[in-house]
Amino acid sequence: MTIHPAQPSRRTPPGDITVRRAAPADRPAVERLWLMFRHDMSEFGGHLPNPDGTFRRERLEAAFSGSADWAPYLVSSGESAAGFAFVRGLTGPVRVLNSFFVVRGLRRTGIGLQAVRDVVALHPGRWEIAFQDANRGAVLFWRRVAQEMAPGVWKEERRPVPGRPDLAHDLWVSFRYPSP
Questions:
Q1: pLDDT digits (tens, 9 = 90+) for 37-53
Q2: pLDDT at residue 109 greater than cutoff 80
């Protein structure tokens, strides 16, 4: 009889998680993660790839533009690229977590929550995060994030997508970190 060691649970957080500002040398990895992110999001917006297989990339370009208002972050698990976060509004009164992604193999392990905590802690102040109501996983995740970051003092509201009256309104959570 052979005894096999227990397989780690998907819900067990992996060790050695890092979140750091993405350098220009990280851009190719973030671009590949961006394709995965946009593919995942196509389920909720119906956006198809361009003829060359890429997706819209305005936010990716803005994040790597060098603007003081934007910051790209790379999330890693050991040596593996695990996700990214793009923050905008760094020069204004409200920071916006503009895009956030964790690879499917690491979802529901705690890495996403830890990555958000790390990014938000780097930029204390008011925060806003938008997501789609149809994305049930995102709804649950972002409500949990808001409650963890600002227990009992966060808000959620529905807002129209600017310049896109044809789209369903986004949900937004807002909070201050550290919370008062």
A1: 776 766 666 576 667 76
A2: yes
